Amino acid sequence: MEKNLTADMILHGATVFCGNGLPKDQDFIAIKGNRIIGIGPEGQEKDFIGEGTRVFRFQKDQFLMPGLHDHHIHLIQAGMLDKYADLTEASSQEEAADMTADFAKTIPDDEWVMGFGWSRMSWTQKDLPTKESLDERIPDRPVFLLDSELHGAWVNSKALEVCGVAADTEDPPFGMIAKNEKGEPSGYLYETALCLVGKYALQFKEGLVKDLIRRYMRKAVQWGITSVSDMTPYLGLNLAFETTYFDMDRKGELDIRINAARNLFEDMETFLEIQRKAESSGSGMYRVPYMKQFLDGVITNYTALMIEPYSDRPEEKGGSLLDLEALDSAVEAAHKNNVSVRLHACGDGAVRAALDSYQRALEKNGRTAARHQIEHIESIDSSDIPRFQELGVIASVQPEHIVSGIPTFQDNCYPELLGKEREKYTWPFRSLKDNGAVLAFGSDAPVVEGDPFYGMFCGLERIHPDGSPAGGWNPQEKLRIEDLLEGYTYGAAYAEGRETELGTLEVGKLADIAVIDRNLLTATSDGVKGAEVLLTIVDGRIVYKK
User: Do 306 and 453 share a structural domain?
Assistant: First the structure.
């Protein structure tokens, strides 16, 4: 411990969780500038207190820990969830349309009416929604409503008209325009087909982009989130808005660390130039460490790539968004340039394809600084689980996905779609952990709201909002609170390539810290779910105080 240093700030009295097996008998943290300069037992904090030191005293039943990381979000869309219609509570197509119409009245000057979060799997009638239900309520303004998984969009006739989507519009690769009995677009767009409308709906000016970023940041710091990974490629759309982030970083307007993932098929020199610019032109709060792409879709739409056919559709295995030869070439280029690749893979076939591509890059070029990752891993073949540790591939997973959009286990379609054997390996967190995989946790907001404490609860209990099924779904895959805290802190920092600076509380590390109102290590699972943040510090600066 460094002595004879006067701290700018002292936090003491709470239960201190340094993380990653570090000592648990500490009582205080001393901060100077943006770094931790002291950690120790009660009484030693006096060595760091001088004129001007701010001292924050807490109770022993409160919890001081490294700042939380959300390792997978769509930041612009998460900001949109705060601004536009939230349809997560709708129980039917009609209710969702009514909610959208009510919301539209609150933004009379906006051209587009947008919303998020609807899930037909939670509706009483699970049919695909149609344009007619929106046309009846909003005939004269284009409507664009993304579903709870962000893999489908519900639109009205005006949106189709404005964007030129008609009966003769061809389906894009790995997308489909749902048609009615007349052969006309019905109002639902699968996968990349949503971009036919999204490329117009999501053309944002800089002022709106900044507003959306700020909206998300305000929520994040209240959850103790200090660092996020932003998945900017979106089914063919580019939502990076890097010039806006550069400007906000230079002006000191970023309250959280943002790690952006750009398109895997972007020109490598262009990517590296943007990466260098991010490193040199601001404060370091905005970085571009990853390249990302979608390997497949989602199981609920039958667009996730499976090794064997879906149990209820023997003719259907799903498919891949990517040409796999082109994938190998892009992964190899990133690997050689020390760039970590993140591949969306929900189906067991997509997970295998991702692992195979990473393995080929390793065999051809050896280890580099790249830390490749697979996103979601909804389903996996058991033989592929040990390969994560063998290849050094990180499992980037989202505990709340287990129950998102599905209020009861009875509404859960995975057992029907996958069958009993494959169902055992849905979101296999414990199996991956026990087989040596590094887990990095996130939310996938706005697929879910993004509260990490609810994510921890889902990882602990694996139950739906109504408490079903008794004992949890696939209870053998439950995690301990220690595992979850590690995945939201050190595991994510490791995946970012910043474990020497972030993810644990140690002298010399950056001062990213959250203080929680209860001891998460001893709280019940319901207590974890109800946790509230008292103080959030990012880069040595208080960004939230309750």
Answer: yes
Nearest to 495 by CA among 387, 375, 378: 375
Instruction: Identify the helix (H) or strand (E) that includes residue 349.
Output: helix 348-365
Does 357 share its domain with 479? yes
In a shared domain, residues 60 and 91:
no
Residues 483 and 517 in one domain: no
The confidence score (pLDDT) of residue 407 equals: 85
Domain extent, residue 337, equals 288-496
**CA-based nearest residue to 174, from 187, 191, 186:** 191
Residue 480 and residue 363 share a domain: yes
Provide the β-strand partners of residue 291.
262, 341
For residues 219 and 450, the answer to whether their CB atoms sit within 8 Å is yes
Q: Is residue 226 part of a domain?
A: no
Q: Is the four-CA dihedral 519, 525, 526, 528 of positive or negative sign?
A: positive
Structure tokens at 371: 């830390």
For CA atoms 308, 314, 315, 317, the dihedral sign is negative
Residues in the chain where the model's pLDDT stays below 70: 1-4
SS3 labels along 356-385: HHHHHHHHHHCCCCCCCEEEECCECCHHHC
Q: What is the pTM of this model?
A: 0.94
Rounded (5°) CA angle 286-344-299: 140
* 271 in a structural domain: no
Q: What pLDDT digit, counting tens, does each position of 434-480 carry? A: 999 999 999 999 999 999 999 999 999 999 999 999 999 999 999 99
User: Is the same domain home to 415 and 513?
Assistant: no
Question: Between the CA atoms of 414, 417, 421 and 425, what dihedral angle is there, to the nearest 10 degrees?
Answer: -40
Closest CA to 346 of 319, 372, 377: 377
The pLDDT of residue 441: 98
Residue written as token pair 């490193």: 279
Last residue of a domain, one of 201, 217, 246: 201
Give dist(CA 373, CA 412) in Å, integer: 27
Q: Tell me the two tokens of residue 124.
A: 């009483």
Residue 247 in domain: no
What is residue 2's predicted lDDT score, i.e. its pLDDT?
Answer: 47
Distance of CA 532 to the CA centre of its chain: 20
Whether 479 and 513 map to the same domain: the answer is no
| Same domain assignment for residues 518 and 469 | no
pLDDT of residue 4: 56
Number of domains in the chain: 3
249 closest CA partner among 278, 218, 215: 278
Domain end point (choices 201, 218, 238): 201
The pLDDT score that the predictor gives to residue 301 is 87
pLDDT score at 1? 42
pLDDT at position 285: 97
Q: How many CB atoms lie within 10 A of CB 42?
A: 12
The model's pLDDT over 507-528, given as tens digits with 9 standing for 90+, comes to 999 999 999 999 999 999 999 9
Tokens read off for 109: 């000057």
